[in-house]
Model the fold of this input.
Amino acid sequence: MEGATYSARRGELETYFDRTASEAWARLTSDAPVSGIRATVRAGRAEMRATLLSWLPREMAGLRLLDAGCGTGALANEAAARGAAVVAVDLAGSLIAHARARAAALPGNQPDFRVGDMLDESLGAFDHIVAMDSLIHYRAEDIVEALARVAPRCRASLLFTVAPRTPLLAAFHALGRLFPRGDRAPAIEPLAEARLRRLIAAEPRLAGFAPGRHRRVARGFYTSHAYEWVRR
Done:
């Protein structure tokens, strides 16, 4: 059963990316010119995507990958180019439309783009599950619950990112709460690394996984921390 806070935040994200930020997000994730601030976010996301891809096998023929919160599909397309059977899901149908259009212009293996939630058990089992910057809006407890829900369907590794608790991100988080609710983007939830690790270690459904690599990427207005948890 999904937690109430997870469901509420999921609804906020779906509305925001479908109705408010779809075109801006499509521009950010393209080669189109953007402002200096957004350029740092673009560069940070590119570095994070490269980091996560470097933690996956170079040859992925015969492997199945879930891109959870795929956005406009950059990571999904690169994994598919390595031969993986990629299922790429996102809550926002408008982003999936952009992803499908971009993938169609590429040669070779195509991801299976779907509007949906990573927790949907009908998606099946995967060798690798990747959630790049798609869990950063959730509380630590909701992130751990989501990981625990997908863990039984993951054969090799769970890769995900969170927003680390830094003074700058904490200040942005506090400032965002001053705006009227209708004017806010869904808030990022900065997390303390030690607490997140404790929560994961205490979750019995994640006992089959061991911590692997981790890396923080900080580029201007982009800060995100990647974690690898590997099937024992």
Notes: The domain at 4-231 is CATH 3.40.50.150 (Rossmann fold). The chain has one domain: 4-231. The longest helix spans residues 36-54. Strands lie at 64-68, 85-90, 112-115, 126-131, 154-162, 209-219, 222-231.
